[in-house]
Structures are given as structure tokens and as C-alpha cells.
Specification:
Layout (H helix, E strand, L loop, with lengths): L3 E7 L3 H12 L7 E7 L5 H11 L3 E6 L4 H11 L4 E4 L19 E5 H6 L3 E6 L2 E6 L9
Parallel strand pairs: 1-2, 1-4, 2-3
Antiparallel strand pairs: 4-5, 5-6, 6-7
Helix pairs in contact: 1-2
């Protein structure tokens, strides 16, 4: 079975984190791990992350000095252990399996072993499935 690491960079997102995490946990295809990375928030984000990690064994919580979303995502990729990586902003959420929305948003994810080795393999994931794309492939458009 393919596994996913969901990386959630957080900066002052205390009021959004729970909804984002619950939306991942409610998916019919479970993530192997959810990595919450607090990027030096000034609100109660880190405390909320810690509470969620204590309640769910698949959640890892990290606190670091503020350095921006790119460095925060890179940190998440460096510690992810799953086959694929999914990025989710803390103020976003995934539609539930019984959501009234018929088409869920697509996510750009990467094979973690490929990102670490070459940085060249990307995958497009949606409810229709997963397909690998090379970065040299023509751009993918979403309807």
C-alpha cells in the first residue's frame, strides 16, 4: 500500500489547524504521518499542534524559528518517511469522503525518495488516481 506524509507548515494559524488536521484524518485513504511544523508563530499554534500530536499517534509536531514557508516545507520533506509527500496549508482543508463537492482539488505531490535523490519526479494526485510526471513534461492544467 502506498503511504503519504502530509506536511503542514504553520504560521499564526491556531484557529485553522484543527480543521486542516481533521480533514486529513477523515480521508478514506489514511496518511502514514501528518507533520505539523510551527514556523515561529506568535499565537497559540504550537500549543494546538502539541495537543493534536498527543491525541493522534500519526501526527508529529515540530517548532522552529521563523524562516518562511519554503524552508519549512523543505524541513518537512527531509524528515518525511512515507512514499509520497502532500503539502497542505494550515488554513486549507480536504473535502470529506461524503462531501457534497463532486470534484476535490488536486494536489501536487512528490515521491519522497525521488525528491531526496534527484528532485525531478513529481506526481499529480486526485480522486481519479495518481500519475507520475517528469518536470520536463508539459504543464498540467486543472479544470
Amino acid at each position: 500500500m502506498v503511504s503519504f506524509s502530509v506536511i503542514v507548515p504553520i504560521y499564526n494559524g491556531e484557529k485553522y489547524i484543527s480543521r486542516a488536521v481533521e480533514s486529513v484524518l477523515s480521508q478514506s485513504y489514511p496518511a502514514k504521518e501528518i507533520i505539523l511544523i510551527d514556523d515561529g508563530s506568535k499565537d497559540g499554534s504550537y500549543k494546538k499542534c502539541t495537543e493534536l500530536a498527543e491525541a493522534h499517534s500519526e501526527i508529529r509536531c515540530i517548532h522552529k524559528e521563523n524562516s518562511g514557508v519554503s524552508e519549512t516545507r523543505n524541513l518537512g520533506m527531509s524528515i518525511a518517511v512515507s512514499d509520497y509527500i502532500v503539502f497542505l496549508d494550515c488554513d486549507d482543508y480536504l473535502p470529506g469522503p461524503n462531501s457534497a463537492k463532486r470534484s476535490a482539488p488536486a494536489f501536487l505531490i512528490a515521491s519522497s525518495s525521488e525528491v531526496k535523490r534527484t528532485g525531478e519526479t513529481m506526481c499529480l494526485a486526485s480522486r481519479a488516481g495518481i500519475s507520475e510526471k517528469s518536470l520536463s513534461s508539459p504543464p498540467v492544467t486543472f479544470e
